[in-house]
Amino acid sequence: MTMHEALMAAAGELIQTLDAETAALRRLDLATVASLTERKAAQATAYSDQARTFTATRAFEKLTAETRAKLRMVIGRVEVAAAHNATALSAAGTAHRRLLDTITQAAERRAGRTTMAYGRNGRLASPPKTMAGGPSLYGAQVA
Fold first, then answer.
1. Greater pLDDT, 129 or 66
2. pLDDT tens digit string along 30-51?
3. What is d(CA 54, CA 3) in angstroms, rounded to the nearest whole number?
4. Annotated domain spans of the chain
5. φ/ψ (deg, to 5) at 82
């Protein structure tokens, strides 16, 4: 296998894993995401190593115009898959934080803390507690 073929193979494997993880993230299928973590890390390392070796040997200069175009397309697909994956990771993290915030707020309301306030970030914030743990004078003011 030539260097550019090895690079394109590593890219193809990474793209498949990134796409699978992105789909799992969009479904919030955390078990699948967890199962892909090690494989994605290994494939990203392999791709990075192949790209570094390919660049260091200046192998790109030796390729035909057609092969260069194919390689550029594959590298572009890796970049798109990585960007989609990063977006899905961010969205899943945001959804997870919101879920935990909602659960925390429900538990606090159930425990008798019914006063709610909004913080600078636009989310519900906890009002300041008094020294004795009783009701706050701040009530529903912005925290």
1. 66
2. 999 999 999 999 999 999 999 9
3. 6
4. 3-112, 115-143
5. -65, -40
